[in-house]
Amino acid sequence: MSVRRFTALFAAGCLIASAGVAVAQGTNGGGYPARPITMIVPFAAGGPTDVVARIVSDHMGKTLGQQIVIENVVGAGGTTGATRAKRANNDGYTLIMGHMGTHAAAVPLYPNLAYDPAADFEPVGVAAGTPILILAKKDYPAKDLSEFVKHVKANSGTLNMAHAGVGSVSYTTCLLLNSILDVKPTAVPYNGTGPAMNALVGGQVDYMCDQIVNVVSQVQGGSIRAYGVATEARNPALPEVPTTKEAGLPEYKVSAWNAVFAPKGTPQPIVDKLAAALDKALDDPTTRKRLLDLGSDLPEGDARGQKALASLVKSEVDRWSKVIKAAGPGN
């Protein structure tokens, strides 16, 4: 055998061997991650999902030894970003911070949805629960929730409600509120909760429903009004805001959630590494404080992990299918 031919065969063998090692590492997670990871946030920067994603991914990246880069992909109530995540390579280098809208309420809202939240993603784990508040512009003519309800019922035809797109948390939770009150204001969509909140602060819209992580500073600063938090107990981040039950609207009880998903088929050892990194982030005192200061509810015990998230997605799809069906045609 000539030296040239031997060299060529040896080089080819090395390439095949290195490819085999790479495949093995990708399958068993041993070499993962070898480069930065992208986490898709299906809304604009500055919104609640974006905030949670940046806080959690910062610590996860330190645990994994690689940076997690946030990519904001806006449109269609978060379903544009979720569709991109579904179609990404299932090698662990593309994740999505999904939420109640993208991975539950979107199913009944979008008949031709390009993905199935349960079938097209590997659940990694819940990152945070986010209580919902009923909010209005700072000069809204109602001093409390009871007056707000009366005013909305009497004037819904002239009121504007902001939301982050059909299927978003701000849309679905206000859809539930409007259904309870039997009103249909003009719904004004924005490319994310951040822009919607800016419109509320600027007085361009009358009211909206939003996740607490997006509004603490605005409520405390008086740039918007908060009439009630839709949970059983008051939230430590905004203790002065009554629960909807306290304020006379016990029917309105709802909270949102954010969770990490990977594309379907991502190797289980990689999913396990991601889930462990998420757990470490949620156990880290600094990360916990950052999330709790924003009013988040953090998952504990059985509420964590892959199985818990898979179960949550199923139950939430069922729940929001009933809510949206009850809201009637055109929502």
UniProtKB/TrEMBL annotation:
Residues of the signal peptide: 1-24
InterPro entries, per database record: BUG, Bug_dom1
Keywords: Signal
Pfam family, one: TctC
Family: Belongs to the UPF0065 (bug) family.
Protein name (database record): ABC transporter substrate-binding protein
Species: Rhodoplanes roseus
